[in-house]
Specification:
Elements: E1 2-8, E2 13-20, E3 23-27, H1 34-42, E4 46-51, H2 63-70, E5 73-76, E6 87-88, E7 94-97, E8 100-106, E9 115-120, E10 126-132, H3 155-170, E11 178-181, E12 199-200, H4 201-207, H5 217-225, H6 235-244, H7 249-256, E13 259-260, H8 262-269, E14 274-278, H9 282-287, E15 294-295, H10 302-309, E16 316-320, H11 326-334, E17 341-345, H12 348-354, E18 364-365, H13 367-373, E19 380-382, H14 386-391, E20 393-394, E21 398-399, E22 418-421, H15 426-437, E23 443-446, H16 449-455, E24 460-461
Parallel strand pairs: 3-4, 4-5, 5-6, 10-11, 13-17, 14-15, 14-16, 16-17, 18-23, 19-21, 19-22, 22-23
Antiparallel strand pairs: 1-2, 2-3, 7-8, 8-9, 9-10, 11-12, 20-24
Helix pairs in contact: 3-5, 7-11, 13-16
Organism: Chryseobacterium geocarposphaerae
Domain Rhodanese: 270-361, 374-462
Pfam families: Lactamase_B, Rhodanese
Length: 470
């Protein structure tokens, strides 16, 4: 038996590849499934099942892609109601993958259909649990997401179900079991996940706050619900895609891999319904970009910030990318359900410049320069999360988190210059591109962000009520 975790850092997502005696099961796959198929073919094995731990909110699963390409059966846990052919298992059902067994353990709480899969090896011994968003390393799944799809599923109700699922279904299992969760640190599906992506169940019983033996149900609910931030707006839309189905990725790629010369690109983008998305890194974007572009770099938490900052999942998108990364951009958009890419700038930004088209730039300054000009009259905005800001920030800075910037343009002055920064320069360039779209011109971004600011020993402070108002 082989269990392999396939981790995708930009989504903090883990899929699992279980192989035994020529048969394979895939758990919680991403939408771009060719790597799973290639891995099975390399081992001369057939993909028999695609197991889903729940209807995911933070990505579009590859279950339908795998079924179409391999004829594998899709398996959900109890109460799931997919709008396509799938096996909806009962609690305790057993599935055979080669000489291994997969047992269904219904663990509602994150969602109603949430299911943990207990893996038995070829000797019939319990080996691991694939827990989805029920149990993370250091955390458990947040219970407030399902209510955005079904208002009857309140966070209190689901939190109480999760309390019982953990104590009655998970904690009685043997300590030696390996815990394989669906996410690690960085995912919005929990609030305090570890950077580690596997652990033993015994160690989690000792260290995970949600598994304390002496915790009452009310204490569990209170601790679980405290400190939850608003989930990204695209989450409910991804849930519905996973329930109802979606276009196959091959069709999305055919539509998106449409090379546009500069003149054609310009004509298409004159339509207000079309968004220019530039996926180059912040430094390249700052040096020159197509006017009106939104910058979200591929080399960062790309899919998460696309979901946060592009409100319409059906938005028509044309791409500006580094040459050779056009398909990667389309695929990574599709992972969170943004399937309406209609083309890309052929030859990248260089072709736009060579065609003598209008360009814009974004000013960046070093932390050293910020230290030189720092003073009481300088207006500084911190676009990190509230929690980051409250931990430590430049003294006098105003906190406007990036995911709220579209609602607070009146916080930024148009008659005075100002500075923006984030942790390292990725989010602040997203903010810079949005400010440029909305007519702000006299501002600069701090290259390297707060990381470089601390190195240069600018005045800093922790939470200060007068400078935080969002």
């Amino acid at each position: 038996m082989k269990i392999e975790q396939i981790y995708t850092g930009c989504l903090s997502h883990a899929a699992y590849f279980l192989e035994s005696d020529g048969e394979v099961a895939i758990f919680d796959p991403l939408r771009d499934v060719d790597s799973y198929i290639s891995k099975a073919e390399a081992g001369q094995a057939k993909i028999k099942y695609v197991f889903e731990t729940h209807f995911h909110a933070d990505f579009v699963s590859g279950h339908l892609e795998l079924k179409a390409k391999t004829e594998a059966d899709i398996v959900f846990g109890p109460t799931a109601k997919p709008s396509y052919e799938a096996i909806v298992a009962d609690d305790g059902d057993i599935f055979y993958v080669g000489k291994c067994m997969v047992k269904v353990i219904h663990t509602p709480g994150h969602t109603m259909e949430s299911t943990t899969y207990l893996i038995f090896d070829e000797n019939g011994d319990q080996s691991a649990i694939i827990t989805g968003d029920t149990l993370f390393i250091g955390d458990v799944g947040r219970p407030d997401l399902a209510q955005h799809v079904n208002s009857e599923l309140t966070q209190d109700r689901l939190a109480r179900l999760l309390f019982h699922s953990l104590r009655e279904k998970i904690m009685p299992l043997d300590d030696h079991l390996i815990v394989y969760p669906n996410h690690g640190a960085g995912s919005a599906c929990g609030k305090m996940m570890s950077k580690e992506t596997t652990d033993t169940l015994g160690h989690q019983k000792e260290t995970n706050y949600a598994l304390r033996k002496d915790m009452t149900e009310d204490e569990f609910v209170s601790e679980l619900l405290s400190g939850l931030t608003d989930p990204p707006g695209y989450f409910p839309k991804n849930v519905l895609l996973n329930i109802n189905g979606y276009d196959h990725l091959d069709a999305v790629l055919i539509k998106g891999k449409n090379p546009l010369i500069a003149d054609h690109f310009l004509k298409i983008t004159e339509d207000d319904d079309v968004l220019i998305l530039d996926t180059r890194n912040a430094s390249a974007f700052a040096q020159g970009f197509v006017p009106g572009s939104l910058n979200i770099g591929l080399d960062g938490s790309f899919a998460n910030w696309v979901g946060e900052m592009i409100s319409d999942i059906n938005q028509k998108i044309v791409l500006v990318t580094d040459e050779g990364r056009e398909e990667e951009s389309i695929v990574r958009l599709s992972r969170v359900g943004y399937d309406n890419t209609i083309g890309y700038l052929k030859g990248g930004f260089e072709s736009w410049k060579n065609a003598n088209k209008k360009i814009e730039t974004a000013e960046r300054i070093s932390a050293e320069k910020l230290k030189e000009i720092y003073g009481e009259s300088l207006i500084i905005f911190d676009v990190r999360k509230n929690s980051e800001f409250e931990s430590e920030h430049v003294a006098g800075a105003i906190n406007v988190p990036l995911n709220k910037i579209n609602f607070h343009f009146d916080s930024f002055p148009k008659d005075r210059s100002f500075i923006i920064y984030c942790a390292g320069g990725y989010r602040s360039m997203i903010a810079a591109s949005i400010l440029k779209q909305n007519g702000f011109k006299d501002f600069a971004d701090v290259e390297g962000g707060f990381t470089e600011i601390k190195k240069n020993d600018l005045p800093r402070t922790a939470y200060s009520a007068p400078t935080t108002f969002l």
